[in-house]
Amino acid sequence: MAAAKAFALEGGILMLAARRLDRLNAVAAICRTSGAVCEVMVSDIQEHDQVLHLVNKTIERLGRIDVLVNNAGMGSFAPFQDQSWDLINRTIRTNVDGPLALCHAVIPQMIKQGSGTIVNVSSVVGKRPVPMLAAYSASKFGLWGFSESLRLELRPHGIHVCHFCPTSTATEFQETAGIKSSSRALHGMDSADRVASAMVEAVIKRKREYIMSFTERLLIKFHLMMPASAEWLLNLMRRRGGSSVPTPNTRDI
Ligand SMILES: NC(=O)c1ccc[n+]([C@@H]2O[C@H](COP(=O)([O-])OP(=O)(O)OC[C@H]3O[C@@H](n4cnc5c(N)ncnc54)[C@H](OP(=O)(O)O)[C@@H]3O)[C@@H](O)[C@H]2O)c1
Questions:
Q1: Does the Cβ of 55 fall within 6 Å of ligand 1?
Q2: Total domain count, the chain
Q3: Mutational pocket test of ligand 1: of 162, 173, 175, the residue with most ligand atoms within 8 Å of the beta carbon
Q4: Residue ranges of the alpha helices (H) in the chain?
Q5: Is 177 contained in some domain?
Q6: What pLDDT shows up at residue 244?
Q7: Is 156 inside any structural domain?
Q8: Residue 72 CA to ligand 1 centre (angstroms)
Q9: What is the whole-number distance in angstroms between the Cα of residue 94 and the centre of ligand 1?
Q10: In this predicted model, what pLDDT tens digit does every residue of 92-101 receive, in sequence order?
Q11: 106-122, pLDDT tens digit by residue?
Q12: Containing domain of residue 112, as a range?
């Protein structure tokens, strides 16, 4: 909702898509109060035929697509072997198959226009590993590789690709992922509005990558340069936290 509101404030024409029509209508009504033209379409990005329908209808109704924000995502915070195969499969289909299918359907239109921006909403967990989020991590690392490769491929067509990495953000996601946040941890979380403003900034400034926190930028660099030391430190920190078993860390995600 926050992302839709932030883009609506920029005066764009929006097509909002998700599975729950009541939520879509409520968000669209808020967006329209800021003067934006806003349409909605029920779509499950796990289903390829629904993605094609969404993109075709958007082009038919709006005439062009300047910005594609691949924001839909899901995850589950639990040991990998305890997650059902259905849950793991839905995570990959939502976080990887969906964005790839959307890009595949939208890129021909952007090439025709000679311009466009794609924002793939990933996570800091797509840049450095965190235990208990293996399937989610796989999906977001996948989105990172995809974004890096696609950016190089689409540059000659005037199309820009941004890999956008939020840290923990206070949204429904925390609850559906099974992350029990203490009030102290909730305090340290980003607000959805702050993340949404950064997303708009990433589009306007054509950022190739946007990592929401300075500490995360350091941790990611540390992991990339010295992965063994970074793992050792992470394990030490978790042991000092009172357990040898990894515990939910709401600064990750
Ligand atoms: N919140 C965090 O801590 C956090 C941190 C880092 C990265 N992220 C990433 O940020 C993105 C947004 O997350 P959020 O926190 O806003 O999550 P959220 O509150 O759970 O919202 C997810 C949105 O995606 C839609 N969606 C989910 N599955 C879908 C599907 N199969 N087809 C179409 N729409 C679908 C949902 O609407 P419907 O359910 O109505 O379809 C909802 O609007 C995700 O990619 C997530 O991985 C979140």
A1: no
A2: 1
A3: 173
A4: 2-9, 21-33, 48-62, 85-92, 98-113, 134-154, 172-176, 183-188, 192-204, 214-225, 227-240
A5: yes
A6: 39
A7: yes
A8: 4
A9: 9
A10: 999 999 999 9
A11: 999 999 999 999 999 99
A12: 43-240
Length of the chain: 253
Closest residue by CA, ligand 1 atom 46: 73
pLDDT for the residue numbered 29: 97
Q: Which of 77, 136, 141, 164 is catalytic?
A: 136
Assess whether the C-beta atom of 94 lies below 6 angstroms from ligand 1: yes
- Is 138 within the bounds of a domain? yes
Look up 136 and say whether it is catalytic. yes
The CATH number for 140's domain is 3.40.50.720
Q: Please tell me the least confidently modeled range out of 111-120, 137-146, 186-195.
A: 186-195
Distance CA 187, CA 170 (A): 9
DSSP 93: I
Q: Which atom of ligand 1 is nearest to the CA of 75?
A: 47
Residue 44 near residue 24, CB atoms below 8 Å: no
Within a domain: residue 12?
no
Say if residue 123's pLDDT is above 70.
yes
